[in-house]
Amino acid sequence: MAKQPMLKFVKVDRDMPEKRAADMRREDFQEIYAEYAEAKAAEQASRCSQCGVPYCQSHCPLHNNIPDWLKLTAEGRLREAYEVSQATNTFPEICGRICPQDRLCEGNCVIEQSGHGTVTIGSVEKYITDTAWEEGWVQPIVPASERTESVGIIGAGPGGLAAADVLRRAGVQVTVYDRYDRAGGLMMYGIPGFKLEKPVVQRRNEQLEQAGVAFVLNCNVGEDISFAEIREKHDAVIIATGVYKSRDLGGPGAGADGIVKAIDYLTASNRKSFGDTVPEFESGELSAEGKRVVVIGGGDTAMDCVRTAVRQGATSVKCLYRRDRANMPGSQRETQNAEEEGVIFEWLSAPKGFTGDPVDGVMVQKMRLGLPDATGRQAPEIIEGADYVEPADLVIKALGFEPEDLPTLWDQKELQVTRWGTVKAEYTTGATDLDGVYAVGDIVRGASLVVWAIRDGRDCAEAILAKLDAKGGAIAAE
Ligand code: FAD
Ligand code: SF4
Ligand code: SF4
Protein backbone atom coordinates (compact mmCIF):
# COMPACT_ATOMS: atom_id res chain seq x y z
CA MET A 1 0.00 0.00 0.00
CA ALA A 2 1.28 3.51 -0.85
CA LYS A 3 2.63 5.48 2.09
CA GLN A 4 0.27 8.18 3.38
CA PRO A 5 2.02 11.44 2.44
CA MET A 6 -0.32 13.78 4.32
CA LEU A 7 -1.58 14.59 7.85
CA LYS A 8 1.94 15.14 9.17
CA PHE A 9 0.97 18.15 11.27
CA VAL A 10 1.25 16.20 14.51
CA LYS A 11 4.89 15.27 13.92
CA VAL A 12 6.12 18.14 11.68
CA ASP A 13 6.16 21.70 13.00
CA ARG A 14 5.15 24.71 10.96
CA ASP A 15 8.23 26.21 9.34
CA MET A 16 8.17 29.37 7.22
CA PRO A 17 10.91 29.94 4.61
CA GLU A 18 13.99 31.50 6.14
CA LYS A 19 13.75 35.24 6.81
CA ARG A 20 16.87 37.35 6.20
CA ALA A 21 18.38 38.98 9.31
CA ALA A 22 16.96 42.45 9.99
CA ASP A 23 20.30 44.27 9.73
CA MET A 24 20.84 42.77 6.26
CA ARG A 25 17.32 43.53 5.00
CA ARG A 26 17.66 47.17 6.11
CA GLU A 27 20.36 47.57 3.46
CA ASP A 28 18.34 46.74 0.33
CA PHE A 29 14.89 46.43 -1.27
CA GLN A 30 15.03 42.70 -1.94
CA GLU A 31 12.38 40.35 -0.61
CA ILE A 32 12.97 39.25 2.96
CA TYR A 33 11.82 35.61 2.72
CA ALA A 34 13.93 32.97 0.96
CA GLU A 35 12.36 30.25 -1.23
CA TYR A 36 11.65 26.79 0.20
CA ALA A 37 13.96 24.03 -0.99
CA GLU A 38 12.02 21.21 -2.72
CA ALA A 39 12.14 18.84 0.28
CA LYS A 40 11.00 21.59 2.66
CA ALA A 41 8.04 22.54 0.46
CA ALA A 42 7.00 18.87 0.30
CA GLU A 43 7.41 18.50 4.06
CA GLN A 44 5.37 21.61 4.87
CA ALA A 45 2.64 20.69 2.33
CA SER A 46 2.42 17.24 3.92
CA ARG A 47 1.19 18.82 7.17
CA CYS A 48 -2.26 19.41 5.59
CA SER A 49 -5.00 17.18 6.97
CA GLN A 50 -6.96 17.16 3.66
CA CYS A 51 -10.16 18.45 5.24
CA GLY A 52 -13.41 17.27 3.67
CA VAL A 53 -14.70 20.82 4.01
CA PRO A 54 -11.56 22.93 3.54
CA TYR A 55 -12.07 26.27 5.29
CA CYS A 56 -8.78 27.49 3.80
CA GLN A 57 -10.38 27.22 0.34
CA SER A 58 -13.66 28.86 1.28
CA HIS A 59 -11.77 31.83 2.80
CA CYS A 60 -9.53 32.28 -0.23
CA PRO A 61 -11.20 34.92 -2.45
CA LEU A 62 -10.30 32.79 -5.50
CA HIS A 63 -11.46 29.52 -3.91
CA ASN A 64 -8.13 28.01 -4.81
CA ASN A 65 -8.08 24.23 -4.66
CA ILE A 66 -5.55 24.34 -1.81
CA PRO A 67 -5.82 20.76 -0.46
CA ASP A 68 -5.20 19.30 -3.93
CA TRP A 69 -2.12 21.35 -4.73
CA LEU A 70 -0.72 20.72 -1.26
CA LYS A 71 -1.12 16.96 -1.74
CA LEU A 72 0.51 17.06 -5.19
CA THR A 73 3.41 19.09 -3.75
CA ALA A 74 3.84 16.62 -0.90
CA GLU A 75 3.97 13.81 -3.47
CA GLY A 76 6.61 15.64 -5.53
CA ARG A 77 4.15 16.09 -8.44
CA LEU A 78 4.95 19.77 -8.79
CA ARG A 79 4.00 20.27 -12.39
CA GLU A 80 0.51 18.96 -11.67
CA ALA A 81 0.38 21.13 -8.55
CA TYR A 82 1.14 24.11 -10.78
CA GLU A 83 -1.60 23.17 -13.26
CA VAL A 84 -4.17 22.99 -10.44
CA SER A 85 -2.95 26.22 -8.84
CA GLN A 86 -2.97 28.30 -12.02
CA ALA A 87 -6.43 27.09 -13.01
CA THR A 88 -8.04 29.43 -10.45
CA ASN A 89 -5.41 32.14 -9.94
CA THR A 90 -3.93 34.43 -12.59
CA PHE A 91 -0.92 35.40 -10.44
CA PRO A 92 -0.40 32.66 -7.79
CA GLU A 93 3.23 33.60 -7.12
CA ILE A 94 2.17 37.19 -6.39
CA CYS A 95 -0.66 36.19 -4.03
CA GLY A 96 1.68 33.72 -2.31
CA ARG A 97 3.94 36.67 -1.56
CA ILE A 98 1.54 39.44 -0.55
CA CYS A 99 -1.88 38.11 0.44
CA PRO A 100 -2.53 38.73 4.14
CA GLN A 101 -2.78 34.96 4.63
CA ASP A 102 -3.39 35.35 8.37
CA ARG A 103 -6.75 36.96 7.53
CA LEU A 104 -7.62 34.65 4.58
CA CYS A 105 -6.61 31.05 3.85
CA GLU A 106 -4.14 30.39 6.67
CA GLY A 107 -6.21 32.22 9.26
CA ASN A 108 -8.93 29.60 8.69
CA CYS A 109 -6.78 26.48 8.52
CA VAL A 110 -8.24 23.95 10.95
CA ILE A 111 -4.95 22.57 12.20
CA GLU A 112 -4.12 26.06 13.50
CA GLN A 113 -7.34 25.90 15.47
CA SER A 114 -6.21 22.56 16.96
CA GLY A 115 -3.02 24.28 18.16
CA HIS A 116 -0.54 22.93 15.60
CA GLY A 117 0.24 26.04 13.58
CA THR A 118 -1.34 26.65 10.18
CA VAL A 119 -0.12 25.05 6.97
CA THR A 120 2.14 27.61 5.24
CA ILE A 121 -0.22 27.86 2.26
CA GLY A 122 1.08 31.15 0.82
CA SER A 123 4.73 30.07 0.84
CA VAL A 124 3.89 26.78 -0.87
CA GLU A 125 1.77 28.59 -3.48
CA LYS A 126 4.69 30.93 -4.22
CA TYR A 127 7.12 28.01 -4.39
CA ILE A 128 4.97 26.07 -6.89
CA THR A 129 4.68 28.90 -9.43
CA ASP A 130 8.22 30.26 -8.97
CA THR A 131 9.38 26.71 -9.77
CA ALA A 132 7.04 26.59 -12.78
CA TRP A 133 8.65 29.77 -14.13
CA GLU A 134 12.16 28.37 -13.56
CA GLU A 135 11.32 25.05 -15.19
CA GLY A 136 9.61 26.63 -18.20
CA TRP A 137 6.17 25.21 -17.37
CA VAL A 138 4.53 28.62 -17.59
CA GLN A 139 3.44 28.52 -21.20
CA PRO A 140 2.88 31.53 -23.45
CA ILE A 141 -0.76 32.50 -23.75
CA VAL A 142 -1.97 31.27 -27.15
CA PRO A 143 -5.64 31.93 -27.97
CA ALA A 144 -7.42 28.87 -29.37
CA SER A 145 -8.71 31.09 -32.20
CA GLU A 146 -8.87 34.83 -32.80
CA ARG A 147 -12.13 36.72 -32.27
CA THR A 148 -12.97 40.03 -33.85
CA GLU A 149 -14.50 41.66 -30.76
CA SER A 150 -12.37 44.03 -28.73
CA VAL A 151 -12.35 45.05 -25.07
CA GLY A 152 -10.71 48.21 -23.73
CA ILE A 153 -9.43 48.05 -20.16
CA ILE A 154 -8.63 51.25 -18.29
CA GLY A 155 -6.02 50.48 -15.63
CA ALA A 156 -3.18 47.95 -15.72
CA GLY A 157 -3.35 46.88 -12.06
CA PRO A 158 -4.14 43.31 -11.00
CA GLY A 159 -7.87 43.74 -11.73
CA GLY A 160 -7.34 44.94 -15.29
CA LEU A 161 -4.54 42.47 -16.02
CA ALA A 162 -6.49 39.46 -14.69
CA ALA A 163 -9.37 40.39 -17.00
CA ALA A 164 -6.95 40.89 -19.91
CA ASP A 165 -5.50 37.41 -19.34
CA VAL A 166 -8.88 35.63 -19.44
CA LEU A 167 -10.15 37.62 -22.44
CA ARG A 168 -6.99 37.18 -24.48
CA ARG A 169 -6.89 33.42 -23.84
CA ALA A 170 -10.37 33.36 -25.39
CA GLY A 171 -9.07 35.20 -28.47
CA VAL A 172 -10.60 38.63 -27.76
CA GLN A 173 -8.63 41.70 -28.94
CA VAL A 174 -7.57 43.47 -25.74
CA THR A 175 -6.18 46.99 -25.27
CA VAL A 176 -5.07 48.12 -21.80
CA TYR A 177 -4.75 51.88 -21.19
CA ASP A 178 -2.75 53.19 -18.21
CA ARG A 179 -1.55 56.61 -17.15
CA TYR A 180 1.73 55.20 -15.84
CA ASP A 181 4.71 54.25 -17.98
CA ARG A 182 4.74 50.65 -16.71
CA ALA A 183 1.92 48.16 -16.26
CA GLY A 184 1.20 46.53 -12.89
CA GLY A 185 -0.65 49.29 -10.99
CA LEU A 186 0.06 49.25 -7.26
CA MET A 187 1.96 45.97 -7.65
CA MET A 188 4.55 47.99 -9.56
CA TYR A 189 4.51 51.45 -7.99
CA GLY A 190 2.81 51.10 -4.56
CA ILE A 191 3.98 47.85 -2.97
CA PRO A 192 7.73 47.97 -2.21
CA GLY A 193 10.26 45.48 -3.58
CA PHE A 194 10.95 43.95 -0.16
CA LYS A 195 7.42 42.47 -0.30
CA LEU A 196 7.20 41.93 -4.06
CA GLU A 197 10.26 42.14 -6.28
CA LYS A 198 9.47 43.90 -9.54
CA PRO A 199 10.79 41.28 -12.01
CA VAL A 200 8.00 39.02 -10.68
CA VAL A 201 5.43 41.56 -11.95
CA GLN A 202 7.35 42.43 -15.10
CA ARG A 203 7.48 38.85 -16.37
CA ARG A 204 3.66 38.73 -16.12
CA ASN A 205 3.38 42.00 -18.06
CA GLU A 206 5.66 40.55 -20.73
CA GLN A 207 3.63 37.33 -20.89
CA LEU A 208 0.50 39.37 -21.66
CA GLU A 209 2.31 41.55 -24.18
CA GLN A 210 3.66 38.48 -25.98
CA ALA A 211 0.12 37.11 -26.07
CA GLY A 212 -0.93 40.14 -28.10
CA VAL A 213 -2.45 42.36 -25.41
CA ALA A 214 -1.87 45.95 -26.59
CA PHE A 215 -0.66 48.29 -23.85
CA VAL A 216 -1.23 52.01 -24.33
CA LEU A 217 0.89 53.48 -21.54
CA ASN A 218 1.41 57.12 -20.47
CA CYS A 219 -2.22 57.57 -21.41
CA ASN A 220 -4.38 59.31 -18.82
CA VAL A 221 -7.99 58.61 -19.69
CA GLY A 222 -9.91 61.85 -19.29
CA GLU A 223 -6.90 63.89 -20.46
CA ASP A 224 -5.04 62.14 -23.29
CA ILE A 225 -8.10 60.32 -24.57
CA SER A 226 -11.71 60.67 -23.52
CA PHE A 227 -13.73 57.89 -21.95
CA ALA A 228 -16.31 58.33 -24.72
CA GLU A 229 -13.63 57.70 -27.38
CA ILE A 230 -12.57 54.48 -25.64
CA ARG A 231 -16.19 53.36 -25.49
CA GLU A 232 -16.57 53.97 -29.20
CA LYS A 233 -13.47 51.95 -30.06
CA HIS A 234 -14.42 48.78 -28.17
CA ASP A 235 -17.29 46.34 -27.79
CA ALA A 236 -16.91 46.52 -24.02
CA VAL A 237 -14.91 48.64 -21.57
CA ILE A 238 -13.63 47.67 -18.11
CA ILE A 239 -12.85 50.40 -15.58
CA ALA A 240 -10.03 49.15 -13.34
CA THR A 241 -8.52 52.42 -12.19
CA GLY A 242 -8.04 51.73 -8.46
CA VAL A 243 -8.32 54.41 -5.76
CA TYR A 244 -5.68 57.12 -5.55
CA LYS A 245 -7.11 60.16 -3.73
CA SER A 246 -5.22 60.27 -0.42
CA ARG A 247 -7.16 61.02 2.76
CA ASP A 248 -5.70 64.20 4.21
CA LEU A 249 -4.94 65.79 7.58
CA GLY A 250 -5.87 69.23 8.80
CA GLY A 251 -4.63 71.16 11.83
CA PRO A 252 -2.12 73.98 12.25
CA GLY A 253 0.91 73.71 9.97
CA ALA A 254 -0.62 70.95 7.83
CA GLY A 255 0.53 72.66 4.62
CA ALA A 256 4.22 72.90 5.61
CA ASP A 257 7.00 71.60 3.38
CA GLY A 258 8.20 68.15 4.39
CA ILE A 259 4.68 66.73 4.89
CA VAL A 260 4.05 64.32 2.03
CA LYS A 261 1.56 61.72 0.80
CA ALA A 262 2.38 58.03 1.18
CA ILE A 263 1.59 57.21 -2.45
CA ASP A 264 3.96 59.92 -3.75
CA TYR A 265 6.68 58.73 -1.38
CA LEU A 266 6.33 55.03 -2.29
CA THR A 267 6.02 55.69 -6.02
CA ALA A 268 9.23 57.76 -5.99
CA SER A 269 11.04 55.00 -4.10
CA ASN A 270 9.86 52.29 -6.50
CA ARG A 271 10.86 54.45 -9.46
CA LYS A 272 14.34 54.86 -7.99
CA SER A 273 14.60 51.06 -7.73
CA PHE A 274 14.10 50.94 -11.53
CA GLY A 275 16.91 53.48 -11.96
CA ASP A 276 14.52 56.19 -13.17
CA THR A 277 15.37 59.88 -12.70
CA VAL A 278 13.04 61.17 -9.99
CA PRO A 279 13.61 64.91 -9.38
CA GLU A 280 11.53 64.93 -6.14
CA PHE A 281 13.73 62.17 -4.76
CA GLU A 282 16.98 63.71 -5.94
CA SER A 283 16.02 67.07 -4.35
CA GLY A 284 15.41 65.28 -1.02
CA GLU A 285 11.68 66.13 -0.97
CA LEU A 286 10.64 62.47 -1.19
CA SER A 287 13.74 60.89 0.35
CA ALA A 288 14.13 59.85 3.99
CA GLU A 289 17.92 59.78 3.96
CA GLY A 290 19.42 61.38 7.08
CA LYS A 291 15.99 62.45 8.36
CA ARG A 292 13.86 61.85 11.42
CA VAL A 293 10.77 60.33 9.83
CA VAL A 294 7.28 60.16 11.29
CA VAL A 295 4.65 58.10 9.46
CA ILE A 296 1.01 58.66 10.38
CA GLY A 297 -1.36 55.69 10.02
CA GLY A 298 -1.69 52.04 11.07
CA GLY A 299 -2.48 50.21 7.83
CA ASP A 300 -0.35 48.28 5.37
CA THR A 301 0.57 51.44 3.47
CA ALA A 302 2.00 52.92 6.68
CA MET A 303 3.99 49.71 7.25
CA ASP A 304 5.40 49.95 3.72
CA CYS A 305 6.39 53.59 4.31
CA VAL A 306 8.20 53.02 7.61
CA ARG A 307 10.14 50.08 6.19
CA THR A 308 11.03 52.04 3.03
CA ALA A 309 12.31 54.93 5.19
CA VAL A 310 14.55 52.52 7.15
CA ARG A 311 16.05 51.30 3.87
CA GLN A 312 16.60 54.84 2.59
CA GLY A 313 18.82 55.60 5.59
CA ALA A 314 16.53 57.62 7.88
CA THR A 315 18.15 58.48 11.23
CA SER A 316 14.97 57.42 13.07
CA VAL A 317 11.56 56.11 12.00
CA LYS A 318 8.44 56.36 14.14
CA CYS A 319 4.88 55.36 13.37
CA LEU A 320 1.97 57.18 15.03
CA TYR A 321 -1.35 55.36 15.26
CA ARG A 322 -4.40 56.53 17.17
CA ARG A 323 -5.53 53.09 18.34
CA ASP A 324 -3.44 50.30 19.90
CA ARG A 325 -1.63 47.39 18.34
CA ALA A 326 -4.54 44.98 18.71
CA ASN A 327 -6.82 47.40 16.82
CA MET A 328 -4.57 48.41 13.95
CA PRO A 329 -5.78 47.54 10.43
CA GLY A 330 -2.30 46.56 9.16
CA SER A 331 -1.01 43.00 9.14
CA GLN A 332 0.61 41.83 12.39
CA ARG A 333 3.26 40.05 10.34
CA GLU A 334 4.33 43.29 8.63
CA THR A 335 4.28 45.20 11.93
CA GLN A 336 6.60 42.63 13.45
CA ASN A 337 8.88 42.85 10.42
CA ALA A 338 8.97 46.65 10.83
CA GLU A 339 9.81 46.39 14.53
CA GLU A 340 12.63 43.97 13.80
CA GLU A 341 13.99 46.50 11.30
CA GLY A 342 14.11 49.22 13.97
CA VAL A 343 10.79 51.09 13.58
CA ILE A 344 9.32 52.49 16.79
CA PHE A 345 5.53 52.44 17.17
CA GLU A 346 3.80 55.15 19.16
CA TRP A 347 0.39 53.56 19.80
CA LEU A 348 -2.62 55.62 20.92
CA SER A 349 -1.09 58.76 19.40
CA ALA A 350 -2.75 61.14 16.94
CA PRO A 351 -1.42 64.25 15.18
CA LYS A 352 -2.97 67.56 16.27
CA GLY A 353 -0.82 69.82 14.11
CA PHE A 354 2.71 70.45 12.94
CA THR A 355 5.51 72.82 13.93
CA GLY A 356 7.92 74.63 11.58
CA ASP A 357 7.92 75.22 7.84
CA PRO A 358 9.68 73.15 6.60
CA VAL A 359 8.22 70.86 9.22
CA ASP A 360 10.34 70.17 12.31
CA GLY A 361 7.83 68.41 14.57
CA VAL A 362 4.43 66.76 14.93
CA MET A 363 2.16 67.93 17.77
CA VAL A 364 0.99 64.62 19.22
CA GLN A 365 -2.14 64.05 21.23
CA LYS A 366 -2.22 60.95 23.42
CA MET A 367 -5.40 58.85 23.18
CA ARG A 368 -7.18 56.07 25.05
CA LEU A 369 -9.78 53.65 23.71
CA GLY A 370 -13.35 54.44 24.73
CA LEU A 371 -16.64 52.68 24.10
CA PRO A 372 -17.28 50.90 20.78
CA ASP A 373 -18.68 53.16 18.04
CA ALA A 374 -21.38 52.33 15.43
CA THR A 375 -18.93 50.00 13.63
CA GLY A 376 -18.24 48.08 16.85
CA ARG A 377 -14.65 49.35 17.12
CA GLN A 378 -13.55 51.16 20.26
CA ALA A 379 -13.38 54.85 19.47
CA PRO A 380 -10.16 56.67 20.40
CA GLU A 381 -10.60 59.52 22.93
CA ILE A 382 -8.20 62.34 23.68
CA ILE A 383 -6.34 62.31 27.03
CA GLU A 384 -6.29 65.99 28.04
CA GLY A 385 -2.93 67.53 28.93
CA ALA A 386 -0.80 64.69 27.56
CA ASP A 387 0.35 66.43 24.35
CA TYR A 388 3.96 66.56 23.24
CA VAL A 389 5.96 67.45 20.13
CA GLU A 390 7.63 64.61 18.23
CA PRO A 391 10.65 65.95 16.27
CA ALA A 392 10.38 65.22 12.52
CA ASP A 393 12.07 66.33 9.28
CA LEU A 394 9.78 64.24 7.04
CA VAL A 395 6.15 63.42 7.81
CA ILE A 396 4.40 60.82 5.66
CA LYS A 397 0.59 60.73 5.65
CA ALA A 398 -0.68 57.16 5.22
CA LEU A 399 -4.34 57.53 6.12
CA GLY A 400 -5.95 55.56 3.32
CA PHE A 401 -7.31 56.22 -0.14
CA GLU A 402 -10.57 57.29 -1.71
CA PRO A 403 -11.79 57.08 -5.30
CA GLU A 404 -11.31 59.95 -7.69
CA ASP A 405 -14.55 61.52 -8.94
CA LEU A 406 -14.77 59.61 -12.23
CA PRO A 407 -18.20 60.90 -13.40
CA THR A 408 -16.83 64.47 -13.30
CA LEU A 409 -13.28 63.72 -14.48
CA TRP A 410 -14.59 61.72 -17.42
CA ASP A 411 -17.69 63.81 -18.06
CA GLN A 412 -19.91 60.75 -17.56
CA LYS A 413 -22.70 61.94 -15.29
CA GLU A 414 -24.66 58.74 -15.96
CA LEU A 415 -21.92 56.57 -14.43
CA GLN A 416 -23.48 55.68 -11.08
CA VAL A 417 -21.30 55.84 -7.98
CA THR A 418 -21.96 54.93 -4.34
CA ARG A 419 -21.98 57.48 -1.53
CA TRP A 420 -18.28 56.67 -1.02
CA GLY A 421 -17.58 57.56 -4.67
CA THR A 422 -16.81 53.98 -5.75
CA VAL A 423 -18.33 52.84 -9.04
CA LYS A 424 -21.63 50.98 -8.64
CA ALA A 425 -21.22 47.58 -10.26
CA GLU A 426 -22.96 44.22 -10.12
CA TYR A 427 -21.18 42.01 -7.61
CA THR A 428 -20.61 38.93 -9.75
CA THR A 429 -20.06 40.47 -13.18
CA GLY A 430 -18.82 44.02 -12.64
CA ALA A 431 -21.57 45.36 -14.94
CA THR A 432 -22.31 49.06 -14.37
CA ASP A 433 -25.42 51.02 -15.34
CA LEU A 434 -23.77 52.05 -18.62
CA ASP A 435 -24.26 49.62 -21.50
CA GLY A 436 -21.14 47.57 -22.15
CA VAL A 437 -19.21 49.22 -19.30
CA TYR A 438 -17.86 47.15 -16.41
CA ALA A 439 -15.79 47.95 -13.33
CA VAL A 440 -13.50 45.82 -11.14
CA GLY A 441 -11.06 46.01 -8.23
CA ASP A 442 -10.50 48.90 -5.83
CA ILE A 443 -12.60 51.35 -7.85
CA VAL A 444 -15.61 49.17 -6.94
CA ARG A 445 -14.59 47.83 -3.51
CA GLY A 446 -12.63 50.79 -2.15
CA ALA A 447 -9.01 50.14 -1.07
CA SER A 448 -8.83 46.36 -0.90
CA LEU A 449 -6.43 43.57 -1.87
CA VAL A 450 -4.67 42.27 -4.96
CA VAL A 451 -6.41 38.89 -4.64
CA TRP A 452 -9.86 40.52 -4.69
CA ALA A 453 -8.94 42.57 -7.77
CA ILE A 454 -7.85 39.36 -9.50
CA ARG A 455 -11.12 37.70 -8.57
CA ASP A 456 -13.14 40.62 -9.91
CA GLY A 457 -11.12 40.79 -13.13
CA ARG A 458 -11.59 37.08 -13.82
CA ASP A 459 -15.32 37.13 -13.04
CA CYS A 460 -15.87 40.20 -15.17
CA ALA A 461 -14.00 38.74 -18.15
CA GLU A 462 -16.09 35.56 -17.94
CA ALA A 463 -19.28 37.64 -17.85
CA ILE A 464 -18.17 39.63 -20.91
CA LEU A 465 -17.35 36.43 -22.82
CA ALA A 466 -20.77 34.99 -21.97
CA LYS A 467 -22.44 38.17 -23.16
CA LEU A 468 -20.38 38.34 -26.37
CA ASP A 469 -21.31 34.75 -27.14
CA ALA A 470 -24.98 35.38 -26.41
CA LYS A 471 -25.13 38.54 -28.52
CA GLY A 472 -22.89 37.30 -31.31
CA GLY A 473 -20.37 40.12 -30.75
CA ALA A 474 -21.65 43.48 -29.62
CA ILE A 475 -22.57 44.17 -26.01
CA ALA A 476 -23.53 47.80 -26.06
CA ALA A 477 -27.09 48.62 -27.07
CA GLU A 478 -27.47 49.80 -30.64
P1 FAD B 1 -4.50 49.41 -9.05
O1 FAD B 1 -3.50 48.38 -8.69
O2 FAD B 1 -4.50 50.65 -8.24
O3 FAD B 1 -4.28 49.78 -10.57
C1 FAD B 1 -5.03 50.79 -11.18
C2 FAD B 1 -4.31 51.28 -12.41
O4 FAD B 1 -5.16 52.21 -13.07
C3 FAD B 1 -3.01 52.03 -12.12
O5 FAD B 1 -1.96 51.48 -12.88
C4 FAD B 1 -3.32 53.47 -12.53
O6 FAD B 1 -2.18 54.13 -13.07
C5 FAD B 1 -4.40 53.28 -13.57
N1 FAD B 1 -5.26 54.44 -13.73
C6 FAD B 1 -5.95 55.09 -12.77
N2 FAD B 1 -6.65 56.12 -13.31
C7 FAD B 1 -6.38 56.11 -14.65
C8 FAD B 1 -6.78 56.92 -15.73
N3 FAD B 1 -7.60 57.96 -15.59
N4 FAD B 1 -6.30 56.64 -16.96
C9 FAD B 1 -5.45 55.59 -17.15
N5 FAD B 1 -5.04 54.80 -16.15
C10 FAD B 1 -5.50 55.05 -14.92
N6 FAD B 1 -2.80 44.32 -1.37
C11 FAD B 1 -2.42 43.07 -1.03
O7 FAD B 1 -3.14 42.12 -1.37
N7 FAD B 1 -1.28 42.85 -0.33
C12 FAD B 1 -0.44 43.85 0.02
O8 FAD B 1 0.59 43.61 0.65
C13 FAD B 1 -0.78 45.17 -0.35
N8 FAD B 1 0.04 46.21 -0.05
C14 FAD B 1 -0.29 47.45 -0.45
C15 FAD B 1 0.59 48.49 -0.21
C16 FAD B 1 0.29 49.78 -0.63
C17 FAD B 1 1.26 50.87 -0.37
C18 FAD B 1 -0.95 50.04 -1.28
C19 FAD B 1 -1.30 51.44 -1.68
C20 FAD B 1 -1.83 49.01 -1.53
C21 FAD B 1 -1.51 47.71 -1.12
N9 FAD B 1 -2.37 46.64 -1.39
C22 FAD B 1 -2.00 45.37 -1.04
C23 FAD B 1 -3.65 46.84 -2.08
C24 FAD B 1 -3.55 46.45 -3.56
O9 FAD B 1 -2.38 46.97 -4.13
C25 FAD B 1 -4.79 46.95 -4.31
O10 FAD B 1 -5.94 46.46 -3.67
C26 FAD B 1 -4.79 46.44 -5.77
O11 FAD B 1 -3.61 46.81 -6.44
C27 FAD B 1 -6.02 46.98 -6.51
O12 FAD B 1 -5.95 46.59 -7.85
P2 FAD B 1 -6.69 47.43 -9.00
O13 FAD B 1 -6.38 46.70 -10.25
O14 FAD B 1 -8.08 47.66 -8.62
O15 FAD B 1 -6.00 48.88 -8.99
FE1 SF4 C 1 -4.18 32.19 0.33
FE2 SF4 C 1 -4.15 34.37 -1.19
FE3 SF4 C 1 -3.24 32.09 -2.16
FE4 SF4 C 1 -5.85 32.38 -1.71
S1 SF4 C 1 -4.63 33.49 -3.21
S2 SF4 C 1 -4.58 30.60 -1.20
S3 SF4 C 1 -5.83 33.70 0.09
S4 SF4 C 1 -2.36 33.23 -0.47
FE1 SF4 D 1 -5.24 21.55 4.79
FE2 SF4 D 1 -5.60 23.53 6.61
FE3 SF4 D 1 -6.90 23.57 4.29
FE4 SF4 D 1 -7.53 21.73 6.10
S1 SF4 D 1 -7.82 23.95 6.31
S2 SF4 D 1 -7.31 21.41 3.88
S3 SF4 D 1 -5.53 21.36 6.99
S4 SF4 D 1 -4.68 23.71 4.58
Describe the structure.
The protein has helices spanning 22-25, 38-45, 55-58, 66-74, 78-88, 92-98, 110-113, 121-135, 158-169, 186-189, 198-210, 227-233, 262-273, 279-282, 300-311, 332-340, 406-409, 442-445, 450-471; strands spanning 150-154, 173-177, 214-216, 236-239, 245-246, 259-261, 292-296, 316-320, 344-346, 349-355, 361-372, 378-382, 388-391, 394-397, 401-402, 437-439. The protein has 478 residues and is an alpha/beta fold. The protein has a 5-stranded parallel β-sheet, sandwiched between helices. It has a 5-stranded parallel β-sheet with strand order 6-14-7-8-9. The longest helix has 22 residues, at 450-471. The protein starts with 21 loop residues before the first helix and ends in a 7-residue tail after the last helix. Flavin-adenine dinucleotide is lined by residues 98-99, 154-160, 177-180, 185-187, 190-191, 195, 220-222, 240-242, 266, 300-301, 304, 441-442, 448-451, 453.
Chain-wise SSE layout:
Blueprint: H1 22-25, H2 38-45, H3 55-58, H4 66-74, H5 78-88, H6 92-98, H7 110-113, H8 121-135, E1 150-154, H9 158-169, E2 173-177, H10 186-189, H11 198-210, E3 214-216, H12 227-233, E4 236-239, E5 245-246, E6 259-261, H13 262-273, H14 279-282, E7 292-296, H15 300-311, E8 316-320, H16 332-340, E9 344-346, E10 349-355, E11 361-372, E12 378-382, E13 388-391, E14 394-397, E15 401-402, H17 406-409, E16 437-439, H18 442-445, H19 450-471
Parallel strand pairs: 1-2, 1-4, 2-3, 4-16, 6-14, 7-8, 7-14, 8-9
Antiparallel strand pairs: 5-15, 10-11, 11-12, 11-13
Flavin-adenine dinucleotide binds at residues 98-99, 154-160, 177-180, 185-187, 190-191, 195, 220-222, 240-242, 266, 300-301, 304, 441-442, 448-451, 453.
